[in-house]
Amino acid sequence: MRILIAGASGAIGRPLVRRLRANRQEVFALTRSPDSAPALKEIGAEPVFADALDAAAVKAAVRRIRPDAVINELTSLPRHYTPAEMKAAAERDRRVRVEGNINLLAALRDSSVRRYLLQSSAFWYAPGVGLAHEFVPFISSASPGVEASARQQQIPIIGEGQGVYSFVHIDDAAGATAAALECPPGAYNIVDANPLPQHLWLTAFARAAGAPAPPCVSEEEALRASGPDAVYYATRLRGASNEKARRELEFRPRPLEWILGQTSD
Questions:
Q1: Which residue has the higher pLDDT, 232 or 27?
Q2: What is the pLDDT of residue 258?
Q3: What is the mean pLDDT of residues 18-24?
Q4: In the chain, what is the straight-line distance between the N-terminal and C-terminal CA atoms, in Å?
Q5: Do 113 and 133 fall within a single domain?
Q6: Which three-class secondary structure state does DSSP give residue 3?
Q7: Contact 107/41 with Cβ under 8 angstroms?
Q8: Are residues 154 and 58 in the same domain?
Q9: What is the DSSP annotation of 85-140?
Q10: Same domain membership, residue 252 and residue 129
Q11: Which residues pair with 106 in a beta bridge?
């Protein structure tokens, strides 16, 4: 199978290329920078030069490569997750995700592509009881605002810390993406099987990192200091169920090492 990946140099893109090459797939990597070419070639992908924000260039690339499948792993995240870098990167990340997706979809209209895979985010489900399945509607009143480092005690446990987080190892995310090339179409939650409330996972992460225990603050204090995003994530975030992925993709994510044995208190 000929597979074109947009975002192949990213955190999931790199292990995904390796997984696909191990499966003897022919992999092409959309990139706007010649500087990325050596690293992409090293992991087995053939670079294809086009800016995802240039609709004409994307269409020409798809026409030239004639892929059987296209995988969208586009992001434009900063190197460091500091408040300043996150704020500076936010608009380009939004454009790359939204406009890049539009351009890829437009390029497929006159092509022979039979499968399109899109990476999205699994932390947008509306608050509710239990883990969210793929049919649960998204929330529209919260925006991403993770703005601190646990190692510096900048992420506190807010209120009772009942917001539930779902994690996944990048190699498991890559494996699930490769499996999705042959599965029934639809949305799949690619998350591990151990969703945890903030007060448990943040404490476990601090222990694993050899950092002091995270401080505790009230919701009112956090609202004044960090804004509504931080309060939402810590208190109302809803974890996601991987039941469908386990059934349809035979998805078996590994337990995360930094959580194992750390959450019994």
A1: 27
A2: 81
A3: 97
A4: 49
A5: no
A6: strand
A7: no
A8: no
A9: HHHHHHHHHHHHHHHHHHHHHHHHTTS---EEEE---S--BPP-SSPBPTTSPBPS
A10: yes
A11: none
Looking up residue 215, the CATH number of its domain turns out to be 3.40.50.720
Instruction: Give residue 104's pLDDT.
Output: 97
Q: Give the C-alpha separation, 173 to 176, whole Å.
A: 5
Q: pLDDT-derived band of residue 138, with 50, 70 and 90 as boundaries? A: confident
| Residues 13 and 78 both lie in one domain | yes
User: Percent of the chain scored above 90 by pLDDT?
Assistant: 69
Tabulate helix, strand, coil % of the chain (nearest 5): 40, 15, 50
Token pair belonging to 22: 């191990």
Q: CA triplet 159, 167, 25: central angle to 5 degrees?
A: 160
Determine the structural domain holding residue 160 and report its residue range: 125-138+146-265
Q: Is the pLDDT of residue 148 over 60?
A: no
**pLDDT digit string (tens) for 36-72?**
999 999 999 999 999 999 999 999 999 999 999 999 9
Distance CA(30)–CA(260), nearest Å, equals 37
Its sign, for the CA torsion 219, 220, 224, 229, is positive
Q: Is the pLDDT of residue 215 over 70?
A: yes
Same domain, 107 and 173: no
Same domain, 113 and 193: no
Domain shared by 247 and 130, yes or no? yes
> How many domains are contained in the chain?
2
Rounded to 10 deg, the angle between the 13-22 and 170-179 helix axes is 50
